Amino acid sequence: MPLNTQPNFSEQGKRYFQLFSPGDDFYEALIDMHRDLSDEQSAMVNARLILLLANHIGDIGTLREAMAIARNITPSPTPAAAQL
Q1: Exposed end of the chain (fewer CB within 10 Å): N or C?
Q2: DSSP track, 27-74
Q3: What's the rounded Cα separation, in Å, for the pair 48 and 63?
Q4: Total-model pTM
């Protein structure tokens, strides 16, 4: 299963009038999920969410591709930040 990196958000039975609206709904839900959590709790929730979604996807090749893309697009720390 190839990794779909194009916008692909939707909610069954809901009609959107703007292409970005479903992505905005997801982002809002993601922010709400972290509300009032400590940094440690937030990291744990992220880890659990990743594992749940990885299990749902199930295809190891797709997951490896996603991990490689996620790691490669993470900005490197600036030299000043690396010294801290």
Answers
A1: C
A2: HHHHHHHHTT--HHHHHHHHHHHHHHHHHHH--HHHHHHHHHHHHHTS
A3: 15
A4: 0.69
